[in-house]
Amino acid sequence: MRYLRNTLAAGILSIATFTAQAESLGFEGGGSASLTGIVPQSMAPYAAKEDVDLQVVLGQSLTKSVMKVAAGRLDLAVAPPPAITAMKAGAGPYKGSPEQAKKLSGNLRALFGFSASAIHAIVWADSGIESWKDLRGKRVFIGPPAGSAAGQSAGLIEQASGGLVAGTDYEGIKLPWGAALQGFQDGQFDVYMGFYPIGSQALNELSLQRPIRILSVNDEVIKSPGWTEFQRQQVTGLATIPANTYSGQANADQAITTGTTLMMVVTNAKLNDDTAYKLTKAFWNNIDAMKQANALMKQVDPSQPFTGVNVPLHPGAARYYQEQGIEIPADLM
After folding, report:
1. Residues 6+ apart with CB under 8 A from 182
2. Nearest-angstrom CA–CA distance, 324 and 236
3. Which residues are the signal sequence here (predicted)?
4. How far are the Cα atoms of 143, 164, 269 from residue 130, in angstroms, in the given order?
5. How far is CA 147 from CA 41, 93, 178, 252, 326, in A?
6. Helix (H) or strand (E) holding 140
7. Taking Cα atoms as reference points, which of 231, 298, 297 lies closest to residue 258?
8. pLDDT range class, residue 22, cuts 50, 70, 90
9. Which domains does the chain have, with CATH numbers?
Protein backbone atom coordinates (compact mmCIF):
# COMPACT_ATOMS: atom_id res chain seq x y z
CA MET A 1 0.00 0.00 0.00
CA ARG A 2 2.81 2.39 0.79
CA TYR A 3 5.10 3.47 -1.98
CA LEU A 4 8.23 5.50 -2.63
CA ARG A 5 8.47 8.24 -5.20
CA ASN A 6 11.70 9.85 -6.32
CA THR A 7 10.02 12.33 -8.63
CA LEU A 8 6.74 14.19 -8.52
CA ALA A 9 3.91 12.90 -10.70
CA ALA A 10 1.88 15.51 -12.58
CA GLY A 11 -0.71 17.23 -10.38
CA ILE A 12 0.89 16.13 -7.11
CA LEU A 13 1.96 18.67 -4.54
CA SER A 14 4.94 17.42 -2.52
CA ILE A 15 5.34 19.69 0.46
CA ALA A 16 7.71 17.61 2.51
CA THR A 17 11.37 17.23 1.62
CA PHE A 18 12.04 13.67 0.49
CA THR A 19 14.83 11.75 2.13
CA ALA A 20 16.01 8.22 1.55
CA GLN A 21 14.72 7.22 4.99
CA ALA A 22 11.28 8.84 4.72
CA GLU A 23 8.18 6.75 4.27
CA SER A 24 6.09 8.13 1.40
CA LEU A 25 2.29 8.10 1.59
CA GLY A 26 -0.36 9.26 -0.86
CA PHE A 27 -2.91 11.66 0.67
CA GLU A 28 -5.95 12.96 -1.24
CA GLY A 29 -7.94 16.04 -0.26
CA GLY A 30 -10.51 18.44 -1.62
CA GLY A 31 -10.21 22.01 -2.86
CA SER A 32 -7.14 24.05 -1.99
CA ALA A 33 -9.32 26.86 -0.57
CA SER A 34 -11.27 24.55 1.76
CA LEU A 35 -10.16 22.77 4.91
CA THR A 36 -10.45 19.48 3.02
CA GLY A 37 -7.37 20.66 1.14
CA ILE A 38 -5.82 22.97 3.73
CA VAL A 39 -5.58 20.28 6.44
CA PRO A 40 -3.43 17.84 4.41
CA GLN A 41 -1.26 20.68 3.09
CA SER A 42 -0.75 22.10 6.59
CA MET A 43 -0.01 18.68 8.03
CA ALA A 44 2.63 17.67 5.48
CA PRO A 45 5.64 19.70 6.71
CA TYR A 46 5.19 18.41 10.25
CA ALA A 47 4.75 14.82 9.08
CA ALA A 48 8.09 15.23 7.29
CA LYS A 49 9.76 15.90 10.65
CA GLU A 50 8.45 12.48 11.71
CA ASP A 51 10.06 10.93 8.58
CA VAL A 52 6.74 10.56 6.76
CA ASP A 53 6.61 12.18 3.32
CA LEU A 54 3.03 13.06 2.38
CA GLN A 55 2.33 13.25 -1.34
CA VAL A 56 -0.75 15.50 -1.27
CA VAL A 57 -3.16 15.47 -4.22
CA LEU A 58 -5.94 18.06 -4.10
CA GLY A 59 -9.16 18.67 -5.99
CA GLN A 60 -10.36 15.10 -5.62
CA SER A 61 -13.84 13.63 -5.33
CA LEU A 62 -13.61 12.52 -1.71
CA THR A 63 -16.23 9.79 -2.03
CA LYS A 64 -13.93 8.14 -4.59
CA SER A 65 -10.83 8.78 -2.45
CA VAL A 66 -12.43 6.97 0.47
CA MET A 67 -13.10 3.92 -1.70
CA LYS A 68 -9.46 3.92 -2.86
CA VAL A 69 -8.24 3.96 0.75
CA ALA A 70 -10.57 1.12 1.68
CA ALA A 71 -9.34 -0.92 -1.30
CA GLY A 72 -5.68 -0.34 -0.37
CA ARG A 73 -4.93 1.78 -3.47
CA LEU A 74 -4.37 4.98 -1.48
CA ASP A 75 -2.88 5.59 1.96
CA LEU A 76 -4.84 8.56 3.34
CA ALA A 77 -7.84 10.70 2.47
CA VAL A 78 -10.02 13.42 3.92
CA ALA A 79 -13.40 11.75 4.28
CA PRO A 80 -16.96 13.11 4.69
CA PRO A 81 -18.65 11.00 7.40
CA PRO A 82 -21.92 10.73 5.37
CA ALA A 83 -19.89 9.01 2.64
CA ILE A 84 -18.85 6.34 5.14
CA THR A 85 -22.48 5.85 6.16
CA ALA A 86 -23.43 5.45 2.50
CA MET A 87 -20.53 3.08 1.93
CA LYS A 88 -21.59 0.83 4.84
CA ALA A 89 -25.09 0.70 3.35
CA GLY A 90 -23.94 0.33 -0.26
CA ALA A 91 -26.03 3.40 -1.09
CA GLY A 92 -25.62 6.85 -2.65
CA PRO A 93 -22.40 7.11 -4.65
CA TYR A 94 -21.72 3.42 -3.97
CA LYS A 95 -25.02 1.96 -5.15
CA GLY A 96 -23.37 0.77 -8.37
CA SER A 97 -21.32 -1.80 -6.43
CA PRO A 98 -23.08 -2.07 -3.06
CA GLU A 99 -21.65 -5.37 -1.86
CA GLN A 100 -18.09 -4.32 -2.62
CA ALA A 101 -18.61 -1.00 -0.81
CA LYS A 102 -20.06 -2.72 2.26
CA LYS A 103 -17.18 -5.18 2.41
CA LEU A 104 -14.43 -2.59 1.91
CA SER A 105 -15.89 -0.15 4.45
CA GLY A 106 -14.62 -2.45 7.20
CA ASN A 107 -11.03 -1.68 6.14
CA LEU A 108 -11.25 2.01 7.09
CA ARG A 109 -9.67 3.47 10.22
CA ALA A 110 -9.61 7.11 11.41
CA LEU A 111 -6.78 9.29 12.66
CA PHE A 112 -8.87 12.32 13.71
CA GLY A 113 -11.89 14.42 12.85
CA PHE A 114 -12.43 18.17 12.47
CA SER A 115 -15.05 20.79 11.78
CA ALA A 116 -14.58 21.91 8.20
CA SER A 117 -16.69 24.22 6.04
CA ALA A 118 -19.55 26.42 7.19
CA ILE A 119 -22.57 26.24 4.89
CA HIS A 120 -23.06 29.76 3.50
CA ALA A 121 -26.56 30.33 2.05
CA ILE A 122 -25.73 33.27 -0.23
CA VAL A 123 -28.03 35.52 -2.25
CA TRP A 124 -27.41 38.85 -3.91
CA ALA A 125 -28.40 41.67 -1.56
CA ASP A 126 -30.76 43.17 -4.18
CA SER A 127 -32.45 39.84 -5.06
CA GLY A 128 -35.44 40.36 -2.78
CA ILE A 129 -34.61 37.12 -0.94
CA GLU A 130 -34.41 37.96 2.76
CA SER A 131 -35.63 34.76 4.44
CA TRP A 132 -35.56 31.01 3.89
CA LYS A 133 -39.25 31.00 2.91
CA ASP A 134 -38.33 33.28 -0.01
CA LEU A 135 -36.56 30.32 -1.63
CA ARG A 136 -39.91 28.92 -2.79
CA GLY A 137 -39.92 28.72 -6.58
CA LYS A 138 -36.26 29.74 -6.85
CA ARG A 139 -33.28 28.04 -8.46
CA VAL A 140 -30.87 26.94 -5.73
CA PHE A 141 -27.39 25.46 -6.13
CA ILE A 142 -27.22 22.72 -3.48
CA GLY A 143 -23.96 20.93 -4.33
CA PRO A 144 -22.13 18.73 -6.86
CA PRO A 145 -23.80 15.73 -8.52
CA ALA A 146 -21.74 13.32 -6.38
CA GLY A 147 -20.85 13.59 -2.71
CA SER A 148 -22.61 14.60 0.49
CA ALA A 149 -23.06 18.36 0.05
CA ALA A 150 -26.37 18.26 -1.84
CA GLY A 151 -28.06 16.25 0.89
CA GLN A 152 -26.65 18.53 3.58
CA SER A 153 -27.81 21.67 1.75
CA ALA A 154 -31.29 20.31 1.05
CA GLY A 155 -31.67 19.12 4.65
CA LEU A 156 -30.61 22.48 6.06
CA ILE A 157 -33.00 24.35 3.78
CA GLU A 158 -35.89 22.05 4.71
CA GLN A 159 -35.32 22.67 8.42
CA ALA A 160 -34.59 26.40 8.21
CA SER A 161 -37.51 27.17 5.87
CA GLY A 162 -40.13 25.17 7.69
CA GLY A 163 -40.38 22.42 5.10
CA LEU A 164 -39.31 23.53 1.62
CA VAL A 165 -38.23 20.45 -0.35
CA ALA A 166 -35.81 20.35 -3.30
CA GLY A 167 -37.52 19.36 -6.54
CA THR A 168 -40.96 20.20 -5.18
CA ASP A 169 -40.82 23.71 -3.68
CA TYR A 170 -37.66 24.92 -5.41
CA GLU A 171 -35.31 23.70 -8.11
CA GLY A 172 -32.19 22.11 -6.64
CA ILE A 173 -29.27 22.63 -9.03
CA LYS A 174 -26.26 20.29 -8.94
CA LEU A 175 -22.98 21.39 -10.53
CA PRO A 176 -19.24 20.97 -9.82
CA TRP A 177 -18.02 23.49 -7.23
CA GLY A 178 -16.02 25.66 -9.64
CA ALA A 179 -18.83 25.88 -12.19
CA ALA A 180 -21.32 26.69 -9.44
CA LEU A 181 -19.60 29.83 -8.22
CA GLN A 182 -19.27 31.10 -11.78
CA GLY A 183 -22.88 30.15 -12.46
CA PHE A 184 -24.07 32.19 -9.49
CA GLN A 185 -22.09 35.19 -10.68
CA ASP A 186 -23.60 34.76 -14.15
CA GLY A 187 -27.15 34.66 -12.78
CA GLN A 188 -27.85 30.98 -13.53
CA PHE A 189 -29.47 30.50 -10.12
CA ASP A 190 -30.81 32.61 -7.27
CA VAL A 191 -29.19 31.01 -4.24
CA TYR A 192 -25.66 29.66 -3.81
CA MET A 193 -25.15 27.16 -0.99
CA GLY A 194 -21.41 27.62 -0.62
CA PHE A 195 -19.27 25.38 1.58
CA TYR A 196 -16.33 27.48 2.79
CA PRO A 197 -14.15 27.98 5.87
CA ILE A 198 -15.35 30.99 7.84
CA GLY A 199 -13.58 34.09 6.53
CA SER A 200 -12.82 32.65 3.09
CA GLN A 201 -11.05 35.14 0.85
CA ALA A 202 -12.98 33.82 -2.14
CA LEU A 203 -16.28 34.85 -0.53
CA ASN A 204 -14.87 38.18 0.55
CA GLU A 205 -13.90 38.89 -3.04
CA LEU A 206 -17.36 37.82 -4.23
CA SER A 207 -19.02 40.22 -1.77
CA LEU A 208 -16.85 43.09 -2.97
CA GLN A 209 -17.87 42.51 -6.58
CA ARG A 210 -21.55 42.85 -5.65
CA PRO A 211 -23.16 43.02 -2.19
CA ILE A 212 -24.41 39.69 -0.83
CA ARG A 213 -26.74 38.53 1.92
CA ILE A 214 -26.14 35.36 3.98
CA LEU A 215 -29.21 33.67 5.45
CA SER A 216 -29.12 32.64 9.10
CA VAL A 217 -30.87 29.74 10.86
CA ASN A 218 -32.92 31.02 13.79
CA ASP A 219 -32.62 29.76 17.36
CA GLU A 220 -36.07 28.14 17.36
CA VAL A 221 -35.02 25.88 14.49
CA ILE A 222 -31.67 25.06 16.11
CA LYS A 223 -33.45 23.89 19.27
CA SER A 224 -35.99 21.75 17.39
CA PRO A 225 -36.00 17.93 17.19
CA GLY A 226 -35.97 18.24 13.39
CA TRP A 227 -32.63 20.05 13.44
CA THR A 228 -31.18 17.45 15.82
CA GLU A 229 -32.26 14.68 13.45
CA PHE A 230 -30.88 16.57 10.45
CA GLN A 231 -27.49 16.86 12.19
CA ARG A 232 -27.53 13.17 13.03
CA GLN A 233 -28.46 12.01 9.54
CA GLN A 234 -26.14 14.35 7.64
CA VAL A 235 -23.33 14.36 10.25
CA THR A 236 -23.13 18.13 10.51
CA GLY A 237 -22.17 20.53 13.27
CA LEU A 238 -23.14 24.09 14.15
CA ALA A 239 -21.17 27.16 13.16
CA THR A 240 -21.36 30.90 13.81
CA ILE A 241 -20.11 33.31 11.17
CA PRO A 242 -19.16 36.41 13.21
CA ALA A 243 -20.55 39.81 12.31
CA ASN A 244 -18.46 41.81 9.82
CA THR A 245 -16.70 38.72 8.46
CA TYR A 246 -17.27 39.70 4.80
CA SER A 247 -16.75 43.26 3.61
CA GLY A 248 -19.58 43.38 1.08
CA GLN A 249 -22.23 41.57 3.15
CA ALA A 250 -25.46 43.58 3.41
CA ASN A 251 -26.41 42.02 6.77
CA ALA A 252 -22.87 42.07 8.14
CA ASP A 253 -24.05 43.67 11.38
CA GLN A 254 -25.41 40.32 12.57
CA ALA A 255 -23.76 37.00 13.34
CA ILE A 256 -24.94 34.16 11.09
CA THR A 257 -25.88 30.75 12.53
CA THR A 258 -25.57 27.85 10.12
CA GLY A 259 -24.51 24.25 9.74
CA THR A 260 -20.96 23.10 9.24
CA THR A 261 -19.55 20.03 7.59
CA LEU A 262 -17.53 17.57 9.63
CA MET A 263 -14.60 15.72 8.12
CA MET A 264 -12.06 13.14 9.19
CA VAL A 265 -8.76 11.76 7.98
CA VAL A 266 -8.98 8.06 7.23
CA THR A 267 -6.48 5.37 6.37
CA ASN A 268 -6.48 1.63 5.80
CA ALA A 269 -6.39 -0.75 8.77
CA LYS A 270 -3.15 -2.19 7.35
CA LEU A 271 -1.21 1.05 7.80
CA ASN A 272 1.71 0.51 10.18
CA ASP A 273 0.78 1.42 13.76
CA ASP A 274 3.91 3.55 14.25
CA THR A 275 3.14 5.52 11.08
CA ALA A 276 -0.45 6.21 12.19
CA TYR A 277 0.92 7.34 15.56
CA LYS A 278 3.44 9.69 13.93
CA LEU A 279 0.80 11.25 11.69
CA THR A 280 -1.64 11.86 14.53
CA LYS A 281 1.13 13.31 16.67
CA ALA A 282 2.37 15.52 13.82
CA PHE A 283 -1.08 17.05 13.40
CA TRP A 284 -2.16 17.72 16.96
CA ASN A 285 1.25 18.62 18.40
CA ASN A 286 1.57 21.36 15.79
CA ILE A 287 -2.02 22.59 15.50
CA ASP A 288 -1.19 26.02 16.97
CA ALA A 289 1.58 26.58 14.43
CA MET A 290 -0.76 25.55 11.61
CA LYS A 291 -3.36 28.06 12.81
CA GLN A 292 -0.76 30.82 12.86
CA ALA A 293 0.25 29.96 9.30
CA ASN A 294 -3.35 29.84 8.00
CA ALA A 295 -6.18 31.61 9.84
CA LEU A 296 -8.77 29.35 8.18
CA MET A 297 -7.51 26.53 10.41
CA LYS A 298 -8.78 28.36 13.51
CA GLN A 299 -12.04 26.38 13.59
CA VAL A 300 -10.18 23.08 14.07
CA ASP A 301 -10.70 22.35 17.76
CA PRO A 302 -7.99 20.21 19.44
CA SER A 303 -10.38 19.53 22.34
CA GLN A 304 -12.68 17.69 19.90
CA PRO A 305 -10.40 15.27 18.01
CA PHE A 306 -13.21 12.80 17.31
CA THR A 307 -15.62 15.28 15.71
CA GLY A 308 -17.59 13.47 13.02
CA VAL A 309 -15.57 10.26 13.31
CA ASN A 310 -17.78 7.26 12.47
CA VAL A 311 -15.21 4.51 11.87
CA PRO A 312 -12.90 2.93 14.46
CA LEU A 313 -9.67 4.72 15.29
CA HIS A 314 -6.47 3.25 13.94
CA PRO A 315 -4.58 1.59 16.84
CA GLY A 316 -1.62 3.90 16.24
CA ALA A 317 -3.85 6.97 16.54
CA ALA A 318 -5.50 5.52 19.64
CA ARG A 319 -2.07 5.12 21.25
CA TYR A 320 -1.39 8.84 20.76
CA TYR A 321 -4.68 9.85 22.42
CA GLN A 322 -4.13 7.45 25.30
CA GLU A 323 -0.68 8.94 25.91
CA GLN A 324 -2.28 12.39 26.01
CA GLY A 325 -4.87 11.26 28.53
CA ILE A 326 -7.73 11.81 26.08
CA GLU A 327 -10.72 9.58 26.68
CA ILE A 328 -11.68 7.63 23.57
CA PRO A 329 -15.37 6.78 23.03
CA ALA A 330 -15.90 3.04 23.30
CA ASP A 331 -17.45 2.80 19.83
CA LEU A 332 -14.25 4.15 18.26
CA MET A 333 -11.95 1.56 19.78
Report:
1. none
2. 27
3. 1-22
4. 21, 15, 48
5. 22, 7, 15, 31, 32
6. strand 139-143
7. 231
8. confident
9. 13-115+262-332 (3.40.190.10), 116-261 (3.40.190.10)
